[in-house]
Write a structure and sequence with these properties.
423 residues; globular; 3 helices; single chain; four-stranded antiparallel β-sheet; five-stranded antiparallel β-sheet; mainly beta
């Protein structure tokens, strides 16, 4: 039976009378879940901070790239401006009067910081280099054979730039090099989909749109050597997303599969969509933490994977917002896992991750012999089961005219149930 508007209002008033009591703090958008199995109060295993895009916060929920600033702030390239978070938000936009004092475009495709701390910003029509004061714009096709920036990757003191159908460029010591596709010393691909640096093995791994998976390594005289590691119709040639593994190597994925690759061990299968709690769930993005955990953005929330199995599953009932679909995940210099979903941007943080620091700059490495991949850098806390059940329905039904209050009320109701379970 459909609830009437009057019954929903009565339910809302009853709920408010329960939560607005002496000793109740103001409601914010932070969800804290704690272990309820012990008698004594324990530190929460993780927190989730949610942001709804507004003029006062991040301006878009479409995240295209993330990097870290010089003092640890998180810089996010979105479909509507360049947002920075350092405890509070600021966002830069297109400057129509003078692009040397602002963005070239509001739609940002890629971000990366170089060895001097400059911020490189990619767009669909060129790139900018921001030194903290002014923006240098590059649209010259003598430097960039195509101005559509697909990805940016720092490699020691160099910057590698993937551009449209023109393959890849290298910027080193003020000089630009274009590696022309399908030439003797050039790559066997035209369009890069994503790339990531395997710093441990000094290897750049590239996933292309239709030409398989490739690596770039350096010769003794610092020349780039391109090598195809999986052809287009090979076992892994259809994988399109590459993400770095802090322990060495990279993870490569698509909507149904995740594999690990390094030049020593080659491809190692990690998981498929059938290994997740809801088989057939689409894998949208992945990011690896320094302690060996893999965070997987799916159409059914975020899965946490380690040592061959699921160690956690985060959904809207744990505080990810009202949508089950998580589009992107990315880890920052403070080991917070940022995520985006329809209507929300947020981050996940826990005590295990906070004890490990991420090197913000890629180290200059000279490798004479390739070491074997090491395993985890730090032990992981035992997974804690949240007190809210996975199938707990929202406070107001989907057909209620008050359902827009669910993002505010659901976390409060969850906290009250947690208090009740401890009592």
């Amino acid at each position: 039976m459909v609830r009437t508007a009057n019954s929903d209002l009565l339910l809302l008033l009853l709920f408010l009378s329960l939560v607005i009591i002496p000793g109740t703090a103001g409601v914010d958008n932070t969800t804290v879940l704690s272990d309820t199995t012990g008698v004594t109060e324990q530190a929460p295993p993780y927190t989730i901070q949610l942001f709804i895009p507004t003029q006062q916060m991040i301006h878009s929920d479409q995240i295209n790239d993330i990097t870290s600033g010089p003092v640890g702030e998180t810089i996010i390239g979105t479909s509507f401006g360049l947002s920075t978070y350092n405890g509070s938000w600021s966002t830069r936009h297109l400057n129509l009067n003078n692009i040397s004092e602002g963005l070239m475009d509001d739609y940002i495709t890629a971000l990366e910081r170089d060895s001097d701390g400059n911020l490189w910003i990619g767009y669909s029509s060129g790139l900018q280099i921001y030194n903290g004061t002014t923006y240098r714009s590059i649209r010259d096709q003598q430097l960039l054979k195509e101005t559509r920036i697909r990805d940016l990757q720092r490699w020691n003191n160099e910057m590698w730039i993937a551009t449209g159908h023109a393959g890849i460029h290298r910027y080193s010591n003020g000089a630009w090099t274009w590696y022309q596709p399908m030439t003797k010393k050039g790559p066997g691909f035209y369009e890069v989909r994503s790339m990531a640096l395997d710093a441990r093995h000094n290897t750049l791994v590239i996933a292309t749109e239709v030409e398989g998976v490739w690596i770039v390594q350096k010769s003794d005289d610092d020349q780039a050597v391109f090598k195809e590691i999986s052809p287009r119709y090979g076992t892994y040639g259809f994988l399109g997303q590459v993400r770095p593994d802090p322990a060495g190597g990279v993870y490569i994925s698509n909507q149904t599969m995740v594999v690990h690759y390094d030049p020593v061990q080659g491809f190692i299968p990690v998981l498929t969509d059938m290994d997740l709690a809801a088989p057939g769930t689409s894998i949208n993005d992945i990011t690896a933490a320094p302690d060996g955990r893999l965070f997987i953005a799916t159409d059914n929330g975020i899965y946490i994977w380690k040592d061959g199995g699921i160690t956690g599953h985060l959904t809207r009932f744990e505080g990810l917002g009202t949508s089950l679909v998580i589009r992107t995940v990315s880890i920052d210099a403070k080991n917070r896992v940022w995520f985006s979903s329809p209507g929300y941007v947020g981050f996940y943080a826990d005590q295990t991750a906070s004890t490990i620091t991420i090197e913000m700059m890629t180290p200059v490495m000279t490798i004479n012999s390739t070491p074997a991949r090491t395993q985890t850098l730090a032990p992981t806390m035992a997974p804690v089961q949240p007190v809210v059940t996975q199938n707990q329905p929202p406070f107001f039904a989907d057909d209620s005219f008050l359902k827009f209050l669910n993002p505010i009320i659901d976390p409060i109701a969850k906290a009250l149930r947690a208090i009740g379970s401890r009592g």
